[in-house]
Structures are given as C-alpha cells and as structure tokens.
C-alpha cells in the first residue's frame, strides 16, 4: 500500500479538512508541518512545485491540495488506501 504524506501548517483550514477527510476514510497518513521546519518546506516546494498547503502525496504521486483530494475521493481513489 502506498504511503500518504501531507504537508501542512498549524493554521491552515484546508489542512484540517484534508486530515479530517483522510481520517474519516480510515486512510493512514504522515503529516509534515512545514511551519516548524524550513527544510521540509523546501522539500515540499521542490517535490510539488507549489508553495501552498496542504500538498498531498500518495507514494511518489503528487495529488495536489485539498480540492484535488476531494476529487480523488469522489472518484473512489481513497478506497484502495484504507487501513486493513
């Protein structure tokens, strides 16, 4: 199963919504707070080409932000990532 990684900040409402959606869908994820670690922010920028949060990855695949995650979920893309 591919690992889900989400880059976030403490005050981002879309980050909160993304975490809530993943939790509700029972998808395990790792959260990286870029407001606490400048090196991780730079890594996010290099990987995604974007400077906004959240930035979500499934394995090496860049999903995008919250709206992209919602679209993926609507297409059934999160079903295969559920914890057993």
From TrEMBL:
Q: Does the keyword Electron transport apply?
A: yes
Task: Report the domain of life of the source organism.
Answer: Bacteria
Which Gene3D superfamilies did the record assign? Glutaredoxin
Keywords on record: Cytoplasm, Disulfide bond, Electron transport, Redox-active center, Transport
Glutaredoxin domain boundaries: 4-63
Q: Which PANTHER family match?
A: GLUTAREDOXIN 2, GLUTAREDOXIN-1-RELATED
Function text: Has a glutathione-disulfide oxidoreductase activity in the presence of NADPH and glutathione reductase. Reduces low molecular weight disulfides and proteins.
Q: Give the family from UniProt.
A: Belongs to the glutaredoxin family.
Protein name (Swiss-Prot/TrEMBL): Glutaredoxin
């Amino acid at each position: 199963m591919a690992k889900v990684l989400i880059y976030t900040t403490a005050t981002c409402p879309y980050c909160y919504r993304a975490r809530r959606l993943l939790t509700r869908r029972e998808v395990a994820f790792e959260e990286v707070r870029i407001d606490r670690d400048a090196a991780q922010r730079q890594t996010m920028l290099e990987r995604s080409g974007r400077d906004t949060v959240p930035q979500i990855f499934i394995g090496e695949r860049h999903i995008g932000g919250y709206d992209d995650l919602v679209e993926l979920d609507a297409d059934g893309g999160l079903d295969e990532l559920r914890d057993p």
